[in-house]
């Protein structure tokens, strides 16, 4: 029970994300016969993003070395990441704050994780904020923000200097996100339970917004699941509706007057 209470925010965020993906409203609707995990899921490395708002890469590397892990330096190729095994880890070859461990490595009980010093975030999820690359002091919108990993990454890139406006329509997901951002040491953010499409680009509040991260709802067809679950192929109608929504939200994001850079990403 104590363990469940300690990880409550993370568990609630993952449960909410799973219900959105499965398009169900009740927890009971998630119960189904066990299915095989996605092909290759067992071979996906464990990515660990160092939260530079609370620590630095060198200190985290030293911590893991004291825990008996062997640091192999910066990876020179993707093949090196795939070859990881045992208690060995690398620095990612593309992202400077991303450590890579063998598949199935579990850090949910690690002090660094529970204190917000590291974020368990896959590489694909780290790329949007990294590519957006707002300078410290920038005003940024995270249009479809929950559960908040990308928002916390943006804050780290900004060094907590500037302003992040984060939007999502789900109250519970926003509450969980607020807990996660606080644990990660994020400041200078405003959460709003609001559909991004209803946000007025002409509002003076957003007159200095120069960067937008847009990660809208999608079919999730490009995701590699780490846990077994049944996946139903989305219908043609569902795909058409998603495509229409994405076109609309992208056009809306591009209408902000001071916008200089926008990163648009999906999991499909």
Structure notes:
The two termini are 36 Å apart. By secondary structure, the chain is of the alpha/beta class. It is globular and about 55 Å long. Helix 2 (8-22) runs antiparallel to helix 8 and helix 6 (123-132) packs across helix 7. It is 34% helix and 17% strand. The longest helix has 18 residues, at 236-253. It contains nine helices and ten strands. It has a five-stranded mixed sheet. A five-stranded parallel sheet has the order 8-7-6-9-10, sandwiched between helices.
- Percent strand equals 15-25%
Sketch the topology as an H/E string, one letter per element. Answer: HHEHEHEEHEHEHEHEEHE
Tell me about the largest β-sheet. Answer: 5 strands, mixed
Principal-axis shape:
globular
Helix count, DSSP H or I runs of 4 or more residues = 9
Alpha carbon gyration radius: 19 Å
**Helix content range:** 25-40%
Report the uncertain regions. Answer: 32-39
Average the pLDDT over all residues and give the rounded result. Answer: 86
* Strand order of the biggest β-sheet: 2-3-4-1-5
Count of DSSP strands? 10
The N- and C-terminal alpha carbons lie at a distance of 36 Å
* Coarse structural class: alpha/beta
């Amino acid at each position: 029970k104590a363990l469940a209470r300690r990880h409550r925010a993370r568990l609630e965020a993952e449960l909410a994300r799973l219900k959105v993906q499965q398009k169900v409203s009740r927890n009971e609707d998630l119960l189904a016969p066990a299915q095989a995990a996605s092909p290759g899921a067992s071979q996906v490395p464990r990515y660990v993003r160092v939260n530079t708002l609370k620590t630095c890469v060198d200190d985290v590397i030293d911590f893991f070395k004291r825990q008996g892990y062997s640091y192999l330096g910066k990876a020179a190729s993707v093949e090196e990441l795939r070859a990881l095994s045992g208690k060995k880890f690398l620095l990612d070859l593309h992202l400077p704050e991303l450590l890579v461990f063998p598949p199935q490595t579990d850090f949910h009980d690690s002090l660094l994780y529970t204190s917000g010093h590291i974020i368990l975030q896959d590489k694909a999820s780290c790329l949007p904020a990294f590519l957006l690359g707002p300078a410290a002091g920038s005003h940024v919108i995270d249009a479809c923000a929950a559960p908040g990993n990308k928002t916390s990454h943006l804050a780290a890139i900004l060094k907590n200097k500037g302003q992040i406006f984060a939007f999502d329509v789900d109250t519970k997901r926003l509450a969980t996100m607020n807990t996660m951002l606080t644990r990660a040491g994020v400041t200078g953010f405003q959460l709003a339970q609001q559909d991004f499409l209803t946000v007025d680009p002409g509002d003076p509040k957003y007159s200095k917004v120069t960067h937008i991260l847009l990660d809208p709802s999608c079919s999730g067809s490009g995701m590699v699941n780490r846990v077994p679950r049944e996946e139903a192929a989305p219908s043609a109608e569902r795909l058409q509706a998603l495509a229409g929504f994405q076109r609309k939200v992208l056009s809306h994001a591009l209408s902000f007057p001071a916008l200089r850079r926008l990163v648009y990403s999906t999991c499909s």
